[in-house]
Amino acid sequence: MPTISFNHYQRDAQYLQVGNYQLAYWHWQHATARDTIVFIHGFPSASWDWHHQWQVLAKEYNLVAMDMLGFGLSAKPLRHDYSLAEQADLLSQLLSHLAIKNYHILAHDYGDSVAQELLYRQVEVNQPAINQGIRSICFLNGGLFAKVHRPILMQKMMKGPLGPVLAKFMSKASLSKNFTQIFGRQTPPKPADLNAIWQLITHNNGKRIIPKLLSYLAERRHRCPAWIAVMQKTTVPLYFINGTQDPISGQHMLDHYRQIIPHPRTSALDVGHYPQLEAPYEVTRLYQQFLLSLKA
Which residue range is the domain that position 24 belongs to? Predict the structure, then answer.
């Protein structure tokens, strides 16, 4: 699968104005497809992460992706308190704008938490006008369970008092070093991928807000018990594809998922934190099989 460049990604973006903020999104409508997949990206990158899956799934499905507020090509306000709840609100507004009521979710990392919040709202809060149509969720590596999540040292430091200083001196070299730590031993980050992710982080002067975005770690700890309770009782099909070499949310996260989620459906891949980039064919194949199983 060819890598999509930053310029290609930027060229194909559409924009939605929500209040004071402009949100970048991508919407593909298949001529005959009835099912829609919503991609929710992770930290610190953007919906670009899904370009391998997008190219294949566009042959069968309607697709939607949005760079969340503070990420990628979307607005990155400095004087703003970022939250997972707001990201769920904004994504819901985009889906409402596109008149999408029923959809599958494919999420990763930070996006896992947004997906969990959307599921909670559907099951517990019952917001039929926006969120009642989640048909399935597939999670990739992320902090599904806050108590077993293991953030790397740089994340811990960035969300502390030194965060703004560290963000100022963040470079593509330091990004490469940190990503190499969380990718698999046999699947290190590719230079082209690092170039694109770096451009997405630095677009709209994005480095300066990284410490603010990391407030989600505390928010997730607070919200996680409610999210887990919903995951344990929902009838929405759930699936977890896990890169087991990931030091943040690898084998230990998969083990915990299998322990506490009833009748868990999971797959393990011998890669790191970004399965969709490290093993794009395998992730796409497994996800296609999952979607087909829902029709059986």
Answer: 6-295
